[in-house]
C-alpha cells in the first residue's frame, strides 16, 4: 500500500484527499521508489483540475516529477539497485509516498542536488534546454528576454541562457522574483507592470532589440514581447497561464521573426533519442553545480492542498515542494 493524493473526478485541490491505495510489485524493467519529495508546478495543478489540453484517466494521482530512493527492482538488468538516490517523472502519480515506474523514467540524482531540488529539476530544465537550444538555437552573444523569469521554467531559462553565453533580461512581476532572476544570472531585470515596458526592455538590453523571447506566460505579455524582437528574432511559446492571445501576422513579416512552439511532452514522444541526450546534458550541468533550482516552500504531504494552491497562485519566488517525511 502507498499513501497518495487522489480523486475520482477532476477539480481544485480540495477535491482531492489522502488515501491508501494498492502498490503493485515492479515488473521487469520497472523500479519501485520511496518518494522523498515531489515538485508542484502550475501544470500539475491545471491537470489535476481537468484544465490541461490532455486529460489523464481517472481516478487520478497528481504529480509529474519527484525524487527518492529505489526500494525494489523488477529485474536485475534495469540499471538501478535498492538504495539508489534517483529522480523520476511521469504522467501523474508522484504525490504519493511510493511509485512504480519504468526504469526509463528514472535517473540517478546528482550528488550536488538534495531530494527537494531533484524533485523540481528534470522538467523545467529539460524544457528550457529544448526551447533555447533545439527550438531557438540561441547563440553566444545574443540577447534573451525571459518572461516569468522568477517562475519554474523562467528561472531555468535564465540559468541555461547564461550558460549558453547570452545576455539575459528577466521580466518578473514582483521584487522577490526579480531578485531571484538576478541571483540566477540575469544581467538585468524589468517589471512587466512598467508603463513603458518595451522601452525598459530595450534599455536593459543595452539599447537594442532582443533576439529570443522565452514566453511561459502568454496573455497580454505576448504581443509587446514579440514586438521587442529584432530582425530574425524567435519567440518561444512555452505556456500561457495568463491566457492565449492572437498576434498580427504582419509582425512576423516585417521582423523576419518566428513564433516557435515548445512542447516538451511531445518532443519526448517524437524524438526520444534527442530528448534523452538533452536530459544527459542538463543533469551533467547540475552535477557540476552550473544548474540548480531554487526552493521556496516545503510542505508535508498532508498539506498538499495548501501547497498546490500556493503553486497555482504563482506568487512565490522559487519552487514549491511536497515532502513525504
From TrEMBL:
SMART domains: PKS_ER
Enzyme class: oxidoreductase
Gene Ontology MF terms in the entry: oxidoreductase activity
Cited InterPro entries: ADH-like_C, ADH-like_N, ER, GroES-like_sf, NAD(P)-bd_dom_sf, Zn-ADH-like_protein
Pfam families linked: ADH_N, ADH_zinc_N
Keywords: Oxidoreductase
Documented EC number(s): 1.-.-.-
Keyword flag Protein transport: no
The Enoyl reductase (ER) domain, residue ranges: 11-322
Family annotation (PANTHER family): QUINONE OXIDOREDUCTASE-LIKE PROTEIN 2, SHORT-CHAIN DEHYDROGENASE/REDUCTASE
Name the record gives this protein: NADPH:quinone oxidoreductase family protein
Lineage: Bacteria, Pseudomonadati, Pseudomonadota, Alphaproteobacteria, Sphingomonadales
Amino acid at each position: 500500500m502507498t499513501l497518495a493524493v487522489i480523486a475520482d473526478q477532476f477539480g481544485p485541490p480540495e477535491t482531492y484527499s489522502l488515501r491508501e491505495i494498492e502498490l503493485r510489485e515492479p515488473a521487469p524493467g520497472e523500479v519501485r521508489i520511496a518518494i522523498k519529495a515531489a515538485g508542484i508546478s502550475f501544470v500539475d495543478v491545471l491537470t489535476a483540475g481537468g484544465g490541461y489540453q490532455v486529460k489523464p484517466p481517472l481516478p487520478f494521482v497528481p504529480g509529474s516529477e519527484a525524487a527518492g530512493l529505489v526500494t525494489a527492482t523488477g529485474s536485475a538488468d534495469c540499471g538501478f539497485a535498492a538504495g539508489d538516490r534517483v529522480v523520476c517523472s511521469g504522467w501523474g502519480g508522484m504525490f504519493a509516498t511510493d511509485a512504480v515506474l519504468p526504469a526509463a523514467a528514472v535517473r540517478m540524482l546528482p550528488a550536488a542536488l538534495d531530494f527537494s531540488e531533484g524533485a523540481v529539476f528534470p522538467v523545467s530544465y529539460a524544457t528550457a534546454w529544448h526551447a533555447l537550444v533545439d527550438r531557438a538555437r540561441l547563440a553566444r552573444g545574443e540577447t534573451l528576454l525571459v518572461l516569468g523569469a522568477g517562475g519554474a521554467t523562467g528561472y531555468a531559462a535564465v540559468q541555461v541562457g547564461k550558460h549558453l553565453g547570452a545576455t539575459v533580461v528577466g521580466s518578473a512581476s514582483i521584487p522577490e522574483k526579480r531578485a531571484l532572476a538576478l541571483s540566477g544570472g540575469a544581467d538585468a531585470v524589468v517589471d512587466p507592470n512598467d508603463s513603458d515596458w518595451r522601452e525598459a526592455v530595450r534599455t536593459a538590453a543595452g539599447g537594442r532589440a532582443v533576439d529570443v523571447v522565452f514566453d511561459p506566460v502568454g496573455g497580454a505579455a505576448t504581443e509587446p514581447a514579440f514586438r521587442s524582437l529584432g530582425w530574425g528574432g524567435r519567440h518561444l511559446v512555452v505556456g500561457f497561464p495568463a491566457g492565449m492571445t492572437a498576434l498580427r501576422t504582419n509582425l512576423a513579416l516585417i521582423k523576419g521573426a518566428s513564433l516557435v512552439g515548445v512542447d516538451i511532452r511531445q518532443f519526448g514522444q517524437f524524438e526520444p533519442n534527442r530528448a534523452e541526450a538533452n536530459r544527459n546534458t542538463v543533469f551533467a550541468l547540475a552535477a557540476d553545480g552550473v544548474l540548480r533550482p531554487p526552493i521556496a516552500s516545503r510542505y508535508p504531504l498532508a498539506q498538499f492542498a495548501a501547497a498546490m494552491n500556493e503553486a497555482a497562485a504563482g506568487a512565490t519566488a522559487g519552487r514549491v515542494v511536497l515532502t513525504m517525511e
